[in-house]
Specification:
Elements lengths: L4 H27 L7 H22 L4 E4 L3 E4 L6 E9 L1 H5 L6 E8 L2 E9 L4 E6 L4 E3 L2 E2 L12 E5 L6 H12 L4 E4 L3 H9 L5 E4 L4 H13 L3 E3 L13 E4 L1 H14 L7
Parallel strand pairs: 1-3, 9-10, 9-11
Antiparallel strand pairs: 1-2, 3-4, 4-5, 5-6, 6-7, 7-8, 11-13, 12-13
Helix pairs in contact: 1-2, 4-7, 5-6
């Protein structure tokens, strides 16, 4: 299957950065026993990945802007029409502890609308991709959200629990866990959304997330037939700081559980 120019350049950049991250990941386990620990090493790996992504993408598209986790909205021309939104290492804590569940995420925005996205998992050699109106794919296999109809059969996941939202997270997790047999916290927002698209998760939500965590995954989940919004029901947008994604039959039920968990509570 022929890939579009945008997907091609995003994929090439991600694969180059992914090879470097995979090599770095192979060294993390050896660093666990050191007194200093692998934290500085992983921070350097994150920055190295971002630098590779920026160099490759800016070389291919010099007139595009950039929003990146490490550097912020500080690179590229000011009058851009298109902008890359990049997480060079989503799942940093997993990476830090030698857990093979992390990825590179790249979204492409045009005038405030997300039009393309890819998520590369170098360890599992999986690529999730989508373009607006063109469907979602893993490599060349079409992705579809699951067809499960009830929460009693659902596998639901969540992520992103900084201390400032711990109480809210606990309320929501308790509310959902009363109705689903399995609740997972996997440690990567981007992969959580991609797994909804692939039908691996039936539902997913995340708190206190950033645009680079969610942008590509939100599009991929939508293009796989999923429903995506903020937990409060507002449409997902680039300035959203939380997200819920699910298949059609479960979306409203899951959203209602999360909203009920916070009823009468101050927003975290």
């Amino acid at each position: 299957m022929a890939l579009s120019p945008h997907i091609n350049i995003m994929l090439r950049a991600a694969e180059k950065a992914g090879r470097t991250l995979a090599r770095d990941f192979g060294e993390v386990e050896q660093l666990q026993v050191s007194q200093k620990g692998p934290g500085d090493f992983v921070s350097a790996a994150d920055r190295r990945s971002e630098e590779i992504l920026y160099n490759e993408l800016s070389k291919a598209r010099p007139d595009y802007g950039f929003l990146m986790e490490e550097s912020g909205d500080s690179k590229g021309p000011k009058d851009y029409e298109y902008r890359f939104i990049i997480d060079p290492l989503d799942g940093t804590t997993n990476f830090l502890h030698g857990i093979p569940h992390w990825c590179i995420s790249i979204g492409l925005e045009r005038k405030g609308e997300i039009i393309a996205g890819i998520i590369l998992d170098p360890v599992k050699d999986e690529v999730f991709r989508a373009e607006k109106g063109m469907g979602a794919f893993m490599r060349n296999t079409r992705l579809r959200v699951s067809g499960r109809q009830g929460l009693k059969d659902a596998l639901v996941a969540t992520d992103r629990t900084p201390f400032d939202v711990k109480e809210k997270y606990m309320r929501e997790s308790l509310a959902v866990s009363k109705f689903v047999p399995s609740l997972r916290e996997m440690g990567s927002v981007a992969l959580g959304l991609a797994y909804v698209a692939a039908g691996r998760f039936d539902g997913y939500w995340a708190l206190s997330a950033k645009p680079w965590d969610m942008t590509a995954g939100a599009l991929i989940a939508k293009e796989a037939g999923g429903m995506v919004s903020e937990v409060n029901g507002k449409s997902y947008a680039l300035d959203s700081n939380n997200i819920i994604a699910s298949n059609g039959p479960l979306f409203n039920d899951l959203k209602k559980l999360l909203q009920a968990a916070n009823k009468g509570q101050e927003a975290a």
